[in-house]
Amino acid sequence: MDAQNTMTVPIDRLDKFYIGGRWVDPTSSDTIDVIDSSTEQVFFSVAEARNADIARAVGAARTAFDEGPWARLTHAQRAEYLGAISAAVRDRTEDVAQIWPRESGILVGAARSAMVEVPQAYSYYADLGESFPFEEPVRPTGGGDFGLIRREPVGVVGAIVPWNVPMTLIAYKLAPALLAGCTVVLKASPEAPGAALIMAEIAEQVGLPDGVLNVVTADREVSETLVRDPRVDKVAFTGSTAAGKAIAGIMAERIGRCSLELGGKSAAIVLDDADIAGAAEVLAEAECFLTGQICGSLTRIIVPRRHHDAMVESLAAAFAQVTVGDPFDANVQMGPLATERQRQRVEGYFKIGVGEGATLAAGGGRPNDVERGWFVEPTVFGNVDNSWRIAQEEIFGPVLTVIPAKDEQDAIRIANDSIYGLNASVFTPDADRARVVGKQLRSGTVGHNNNRADFGIGFGGFKQSGIGREGGVAGLQAYLENKTMIFDEKPTGFGG
């Protein structure tokens, strides 16, 4: 695995920020080391933003929105840029596939597959430039003869993305924001800044007007400067619920807009007519994707009590077949966690689960044959009470908890007994039963027989899993403000 680090990093300017359409020097010599999660060696280093750098990026975005051409282009003109970005992103697929496993631990094959969605996101919003009703007539109800609803850009957006799936999460913030006419300050994660820097290079390549996209990398303390800056009209954040609460509180002080895609502790309800072995195979395979570092992971497996032991045994058997190791090895099914801190967190929950009285059926430690890297074993706990910490707290690692339920209504109650409501699934061969149960779940997404989280339609959560939706038409509406206009007569310039 040492040979991985001999590759040339496919990013040209690691020591600069992209601000105001130019690559600029940072205000300090501070840098951030990006560590290869498989080897624990430095992969590359990037400039670390300080408060002055954040302020400069916000200023560039503010000027570009208030004085530049971007917000004054037609939606069709902005859509042309999105089309160019889509093509450029597709051309950089292999670059992302080489960086992403080293930053976050995803398998290289999974990275390539996941990247298929990213250019499609930009193309989708480019198409909305023609079909979405940014301006439509309405009948006034309180006087006047002709009314219009105009959907206008919210303004300057601070987009903050995490380290797990940065290229995808950037796309579902940046694409709708750009189509709407917003300008953006993109704050990259210090653990995984590669995707954001690639997007800066793409912005330069396609000729986005100066200041429309600005890219900086900063740690969490300095990132608060972006959230507090009154020149930022909206913050779009994906990350932990704890950080989301802090952002929401800051934005509330100045009535700033925010959309929050936060944590989850999602439930898979396995009904009494489900194929237990088949469900276990699906759930185990899904949990190995990105080593369970997915907010929408189905980690609470709720089964009829009489099927509990069979489910635990099936999950344990499936995880026993998983080879953990180098994400560039075609024979490996699960890579490392992203950081040493994350591994320590996951290992802490191994101890918590045992201490709470759960049955450790598989995993619970580090692979014996891997000497370096932040690897853990895929883990199954059985006989879990839903009130326990391992069933209530987001672990963000490959840890499944199997929870017995008395009957279908008890399973629904258990699924809803959580501060989160991001994702869920119902396992049954009967789609009608899945619909009946799914309608009773307090969750932003409910799938059938698998993890069906779908950003193309829209993704987001109930309760403490967030505010708003990303993807789909709802994802565009998050970057628009409605303006009501009422006239004495129909304007001659309106052709609708």
Automatic annotation (TrEMBL):
Where the record annotates domain Aldehyde dehydrogenase, the positions are 23-484
Q: Which residues form the active site?
A: 261
Please tell me whether the keyword Acyltransferase is annotated for this protein: no
Pfam families of this UniProt entry? Aldedh
List the Gene Ontology MF annotations in alphabetical order: oxidoreductase activity, acting on the aldehyde or oxo group of donors, NAD or NADP as acceptor
- Write the record's keywords in alphabetical order, separated by commas: Oxidoreductase
Work out whether the entry's keyword set contains Oxidoreductase: yes
What the entry lists under InterPro entries is as follows:
Ald_DH/histidinol_DH, Ald_DH_C, Ald_DH_CS_GLU, Ald_DH_N, Aldehyde_DH_dom
Q: Which residues form the signal peptide?
A: none
> Which Gene3D superfamilies does the UniProt record give?
Aldehyde Dehydrogenase, Chain A, domain 1 (3.40.605.10), Aldehyde Dehydrogenase, Chain A, domain 2 (3.40.309.10)
Q: What family does this belong to? A: Belongs to the aldehyde dehydrogenase family.
- The name under which this protein is listed is Acyl-CoA reductase
* Source organism of this protein record: Pseudonocardia ammonioxydans
